[in-house]
Specification:
about 375 residues; TIM Barrel; 3 domains
């Protein structure tokens, strides 16, 4: 980024983890510095850049200003005079509107957390990141959590000393998209990292005293490497013991390189049944760790597969076992209901109204075993 770039106002990026829904989005970098993963199309065609530190500082100051002004209007009990809020917003220039709305939404979310965007904030110089973090702490001392995405490759290259300095400056949670720890899978999907580096990075984050969320992507190994995807990733998780293991089932948007591989026959995507088997194998091989498993994404077939290891393991596996014991027709109805948003969990099959809704959907769209995979794939693409 050229130092002479003019400040254009508060910025936000395109994505955040579901767990950061109430967080203030603070954009440190734009887009993804790697941007080669076959399963991801979010940043394709977009150039990576780091925003000048003084621009980020101006963003923080803008949020501080609007938080103060909005809270004066809202008062301690809220919601205050709505017309005064409209007047405050209307009186600001266009390039400050995003800051106003971000501050208002953050206030409504109780101002407890901040998420640093975009895909890999940790790639900037440690001194720059620390300067930003310290200004956040000074401006918003009440904040409980400051979070960022990161790549394992990037974390592995940061010194232990700098990781500790970053933690002391206030960064207390990092999300790493492990996706897989099977080297064959990682190479095929162009992840730009191997299993060893995933483990080095994860352990380094933990040693720094920063909470760690690692992501597992069932299905990423395709038909060929489904078993290895589960086993090697579970082994890496066991060596890291992340605070959170987050499940993100593979989907292949048409704009992704992996979708083109599916069409070309170089990648054989597995369906919900095989993906469930893979998830079961993964969970079954998690051992000796105390991670919290989260299934907090609409792409997952079982959002209820959540709990703390090791005590909740049996409970987490219950829905998976129940689904696999269903006959083919029952499995079809659940998949249709889940992929269309009718069901949120397997127990919803016991609700007569929801069950009828799912059966009606099956009949309306004439879904059968012949077109079920095509239908569910299309539904999943809509949620990406």
């Amino acid at each position: 980024m050229k130092p002479s770039e003019n400040y254009q106002g508060f910025e936000t990026g395109p994505i955040r983890p579901p767990s950061e829904a109430k967080s203030l989005m603070l954009r440190i970098t734009r887009n993804c510095p790697w941007n080669k993963c076959k399963f991801c199309s979010l940043y394709k065609g977009k150039k990576f850049s780091a925003r000048p530190v003084n621009h980020v500082i101006k963003d923080i100051d803008a949020i501080r200003y609007y938080v103060d002004e909005i809270q004066k209007i809202m008062g301690p009990s809220g919601p205050g005079n709505k017309q005064d809020l409209i007047t405050l917003q209307a009186g600001r220039p266009e390039n400050e509107q995003m800051a106003f709305h971000s501050a208002l939404n953050w206030i409504r979310g109780k101002k407890k957390s901040i998420f640093l965007q975009d895909a890999n904030t940790m790639i900037i110089k440690p001194d720059d990141l620390i300067k930003i973090l310290l200004h956040v702490q000074k401006s918003f001392p009440q904040v409980e959590r400051i979070t960022s995405y990161a790549r394992s490759h990037t974390i592995a290259r940061i010194s232990e000393e700098n990781m500790t300095r970053i933690a002391n400056a206030g960064l207390n949670r990092i999300h790493i998209g492990m996706e897989s720890a099977c080297n064959e899978v990682l190479a095929f999907v162009k992840k730009g990292v191997d299993k060893k580096t995933h483990i080095i990075a994860g352990q380094k984050v933990k040693r720094a005293g920063i909470e760690l969320s690692e992501y597992f992507m069932p299905g990423l190994g395709g038909e060929k490497y489904s078993r290895q995807n589960a086993l090697h990733t579970a082994d890496a998780m066991n060596q890291i013991n992340p605070d959170f293991i987050r499940i993100r089932t593979l989907a292949t948007p048409e704009s992704s390189e992996l979708f083109k591989d599916c069409q070309a026959g170089t990648f054989s995507k597995i369906g919900d049944l095989q993906t469930t088997e893979e998830l079961r194998l993964f969970l079954d091989n998690l051992s000796g760790i105390t991670s919290t498993v989260k299934s907090d994404h609409i792409l997952n077939l079982f959002q209820e597969v959540e709990g703390c290891l090791p005590n909740d393991k049996e409970q987490m596996m219950a829905s998976i076992h129940s689904f696999l014991l269903m006959n083919a027709d029952e499995q079809m109805i659940y998949r249709i209901g889940r992929r269309t948003g009718i069901f949120s969990k397997l127990d919803d099959m016991k609700n007569p109204e929801l069950l009828k809704h799912a059966e009606d959907t099956k009949n309306r769209y004439k879904i059968s075993t012949d077109n079920l995979e095509e239908f569910t794939d299309e539904m999943m693409k809509r949620f990406i």
